[in-house]
Design a protein that fits this description.
about 25% helix, Alpha-Beta Plaits, two-stranded antiparallel sheet, 3 helices, alpha+beta, single chain, globular
Length: about 90
């Protein structure tokens, strides 16, 4: 399991600041969602990011609302196939 940031995020960045494992990465230069990603390989499921989020935009992957279900795969693909693969 890991946490996933959904489009409810308003880019506050508080989650990245509080993450004890630096698992949250910001992607600049894109106006398309998503902007923040959580590395499923380094996330320790502590929940600090979700607790800090003012928009309640962060969920455990198994608890992501149905309308955001695709973002579980999008987040994982960022780290396996996309630009985040270099961060693993």
């Amino acid at each position: 399991m890991t946490y996933v940031i959904t489009p409810a995020c308003e880019l506050a960045g508080l989650c990245a600041d509080i993450c004890p494992t630096d698992s949250i990465h910001y992607v600049e230069g894109s106006s398309d969602w998503p902007i923040y990603y959580i590395n499923p390989e380094t996330c320790i499921d502590c929940g600090a990011c979700a607790a800090e989020c003012p928009n309640e935009a962060i969920y455990m992957d198994e608890d992501v609302p149905a309308e955001y279900a695709d973002y579980v795969e999008i987040n994982e693909a960022f780290y396996t196939k996309g630009p985040g693969a270099e961060l693993v």
